[in-house]
Specification:
Layout: E1 2-6, H1 14-24, E2 36-45, E3 51-60, H2 63-74, H3 78-82, E4 96-100, H4 114-120, E5 133-141
Antiparallel strand pairs: 1-3, 1-4, 2-3, 2-5
């Protein structure tokens, strides 16, 4: 069960992020307290070796904890828990959390048959940004 936190500001470190996310996973009357298993901060780097975007991959113990954390993070409380100011130069894009799916060629529907895949593959061009590379920054397991 993975989730991704997109558009992290430069000022946040992995411990602040872990503390903020763990505070959002508090248990309640109807659900258990969730646990974070690992956090990996990654950077998207362009050809000039400049960091364009920073993201975090968060591995959680259960599906219900992941759904609850995404909902709480995208709600109105995430700035309070992570203590991020409204400085637009610090974080140019809005912080968001969403589901992260690990994809493989084994579960790709378009690989089943080449004739059918040409019919089903409606992309005119590649959607990925070819000039970016992914570099790991920090990783912490719990």
């Amino acid at each position: 069960m993975y989730m991704i936190v997109k558009n992290l500001p430069k000022s946040i470190n992995i411990d602040e992020l872990a503390d903020g996310l763990q505070s959002l996973l508090k248990g309640g009357l109807f659900h258990k307290k969730g646990q974070i298993k690992a956090i990996k901060m990654i950077a998207l780097v362009n050809k000039e070796r400049r960091i364009i975007e920073r993201h975090a991959l968060v591995r959680l113990c259960s599906e219900s904890a992941r759904l609850r954390l995404i909902k709480a993070f995208n709600g109105s409380e995430y700035k309070k828990h992570l203590q991020i100011g409204d400085d637009s130069s610090n974080c140019p894009k809005e912080l968001t959390a969403s589901n992260f799916v690990v994809r493989s060629w084994r579960n790709d529907r378009r690989q089943s048959s080449e004739v059918e895949s040409r019919k089903r593959n409606h992309r005119q061009q590649e959607r990925r940004r070819p000039d970016l590379s992914v570099y790991p920054l920090l990783e912490k397991t719990f």
